[in-house]
From TrEMBL:
Residues 27-99 form the Methylguanine DNA methyltransferase ribonuclease-like domain. This is Methylated-DNA--[protein]-cysteine S-methyltransferase. One of its GO terms (biological process) is methylation. It comes from Microtetraspora glauca. Its EC number is 2.1.1.63. GO terms for molecular function: methylated-DNA-[protein]-cysteine S-methyltransferase activity. Keywords: DNA damage, Methyltransferase, Transferase.
Length: 187
């Protein structure tokens, strides 16, 4: 990220910043019980709900979607309210639309499989590989799940390595375990 991009990020994420017109990509953060999440939303929907460093998410959005990025409570506050309700145990299914602009076709196929896994249940990497017709692609499945830029909204935490083995997660193993406990998928 260039110095100019970093300065732009710091300017638009500063408290009290009000842009002249709504940005193409609303950008912000939220502190959650499983860590700080970087949020971004386009007119299509949530494009990022990520554990990554906000500078990295900002740079990827700047490179792949738009350079007109800034705060927009009108778009992000509903996303934050849904996350609050989820963590309070009052929400089982997110209603915010998801924008898959930051994922490859393969990753989109994989993470959409996890979207079909109901709250409180899990699937395995092997099950996903079988369903997409690539039964030997377990490492590719794990990598695609790790690349999910819209964690929680597309619940990749519901995909486990195998019964009894949680596998990796972008937010770390403790976050994955906590999310699955919250949903009642772990005893």
């Amino acid at each position: 990220m260039s110095t100019g991009d970093l300065e732009a990020l710091l300017r638009v994420t500063a408290r009290g910043y009000v842009g002249e017109s709504p940005p193409e990509v609303a950008f912000g953060t939220v502190d959650s019980p499983v860590g700080r999440l970087v949020l971004a939303a386009t007119a299509r929907g949530v494009v990022a709900c990520s554990y990554e460093d906000e500078h990295a998410v900002f740079a990827r959005i700047h490179r792949d979607i738009s350079s007109f990025i800034g705060p927009d409570p009108r778009r992000l506050d509903p996303v934050r309210r849904e996350l609050d309700a989820y963590f309070d145990g009052r929400l089982r299914t997110f209603s915010s639309a998801v924008d898959f602009q930051l994922v490859s076709a393969f990753t989109r196929t994989v993470v959409q499989m996890t979207a079909a896994v109901p709250y409180g249940q899990v699937t395995t990497y092997h099950d996903i590989a079988e369903r997409i017709g690539r039964p030997q692609a377990l490492r590719a499945i794990a990598n695609a799940l790790a690349a999910n830029p819209v964690c929680l909204f597309v619940p990749c935490h519901r995909a486990v390595e195998a019964p009894g083995a949680l596998g990796g997660y972008a937010g770390g193993p403790v976050a994955k375990e906590n999310l699955l406990r919250l949903e009642g998928a772990l005893g």
